[in-house]
Design brief:
The chain is an alpha+beta fold and 422 residues long. It is 23% helix and 34% strand. It has two domains: 73 residues, Multidrug-efflux Transporter Regulator, Chain: A, Domain 2, CATH 1.10.1660; 225 residues, no CATH class. The strands form six sheets. An eight-stranded antiparallel beta sheet has the order 13-14-15-16-17-18-19-24. A four-stranded antiparallel beta sheet has the order 7-8-9-10, with no helix packed on it. The longest helix has 29 residues.
Length: 422
């Protein structure tokens, strides 16, 4: 930048006799660097004097030279201008870099929010639909198309601040490999796998082993109150009437296991004994009783095997006494007695704080009842499906059962529901 008219004026008279005796003083007066002041000498004829290796220049001579050469001095030799330019360019560069960083951060995927299964590829996406991670399963989907392919949930089970994906891959090799519970980390790494190879024997000499399939699983707060979550999973033997409820902690380590003669098909958390705390509630059916059952467990104590008479050949051997807190037995309807050897619960659900149990009265699933329980499992309300009503009327006509009135049958089932506490 050219000097102003004021800058070109010489200093007051009292400074005219002053002498600058170093390059540092000369450069400071010129407002340039020492190196630039030295270039002024060689390139622009700055009249410095040398004596005994030292430089000097009267201030008046320097001001005169500066006034004569102000127009010749290019802007890039002015340190002040260069300093301002550097500051401005640095600021602009920082703005550009910050904008680029914000853009790149916005393109990175966020926390897992949804799960999509496409053939055998599991894709976990964030809230904006961007892929977070993918996993290729080794087998195609279950052949019948009945299962959804993957039952799953997203949760921070280890209290680490990120969401894990817990799921059951329902593949076509069910009858040879069984189904397992998978736990994936927030970046898609397999943290643990709950696979069942256990073998049990019955009093009648029958042996059950792998493969097992997972019918249902759920998460619940750790009984150790450490902020983590545990997993309960109901496994069923694919070839026989044996099942087990397995409880693992957030690291996949087993913390409890209960064996059942029959099938456990569904799990929920529900205050089954009305003590103010939820139990793990399993629904299915039990051999020996040959009827649908609802079993409640203390989440901190899942152990043993269901009680059966010593003489029953289906009794599971080598297990501790049952840890059941209570068991509810759901009586069989006349429809079940005529068309099946037992009734059973395929699914449990929680609706407005009540436990709903869907109970099929035949293996052909021709009709079902819905039991609605308040905490404590007392006085269930029973609702008939249309299919149950129709099947009951058809059976009454076919078997000439004049007393088979669906409404009366429901009253009988309500009165015969019983709860047993070990």
């Amino acid at each position: 930048m050219p000097l102003s008219e004021t800058d070109r004026q010489p200093k007051p008279a009292e400074d005219d006799k002053a002498v600058l005796t170093s390059w540092k003083e000369i450069a400071a007066q010129l407002q340039v660097s020492v190196k630039m002041a030295q270039r002024y000498e060689t390139e622009l004829g700055l009249p410095v004097r040398r004596l005994a290796g030292r430089v000097s220049i009267p201030l008046s001579d320097l001001l005169h030279w500066q006034a004569e050469n102000a127009k010749a001095s290019p802007w890039w030799m002015n340190v002040r201008i260069l300093q301002i330019g550097f500051a401005v360019s640095s600021g602009l560069l920082l703005v550009v870099l910050a904008s680029a960083a914000v853009y790149l951060i916005r393109q990175l995927p966020g926390a897992p929010a949804s799960v999509l299964l496409d053939a055998a590829v599991l894709t976990v996406r964030d809230a904006a639909g961007r892929p977070v991670w993918r996993h290729q399963f080794p087998h195609p989907l279950f052949a019948t198309g009945e299962p959804p392919g993957l039952t799953h949930t997203l949760a921070d089970i280890d209290h680490g601040g990120t969401l894990e994906t817990i799921g059951v891959w329902q593949h076509v090799q069910r009858d040879t490999l069984g189904w397992d519970v998978h736990c994936f980390s927030a970046d898609g790494k397999l943290r643990w796998l709950l696979h069942l190879d256990d073998r049990v024997k019955t009093a009648g000499g029958k042996e059950f082993g792998a493969p097992y399939v997972v019918r249902h699983f759920l998460l619940f707060e750790s009984p150790e109150r450490d902020g983590t979550k545990w997993v309960a999973a109901a496994f069923v033997n694919v070839a026989g009437f044996a099942s087990t409820l397995v409880v693992v902690d957030s690291h996949g380590k087993r913390r409890g296991q209960y064996w059942h003669s029959g099938h456990l098909n569904s799990l929920q958390l529900f205050d089954a004994d009305a003590d103010g705390a939820n139990e793990i509630v399993a629904g299915g059916y039990r051999l020996g009783a040959d009827q649908a059952v609802i079993i409640a467990f203390d989440p901190a104590r899942v152990d043993g095997a269901n009680p059966m008479p010593e003489s029953d050949p289906r009794r599971i051997l080598g297990k501790a006494p049952s840890s059941e807190k209570l068991t509810g037995f759901l009586a069989r309807s006349v429809l079940s007695q005529q068309q099946s050897s037992f009734n059973f619960i395929p699914g449990l659900s929680i609706v407005n704080g009540d436990l709903h149990a869907q109970v099929y009265e035949s293996l052909q699933m021709q009709g079902y009842l819905t039991y609605e329980f308040k905490p404590g499992l007392r006085n269930p309300k029973i609702t008939m499906s249309v299919a149950f009503t129709d099947a009951s009327h058809r059976l009454a006509l076919q078997q000439n059962l004049s007393k088979l009135i669906p409404e009366k049958e429901v009253e009988r089932l309500q009165s015969e529901f019983r709860v047993v506490r070990p």
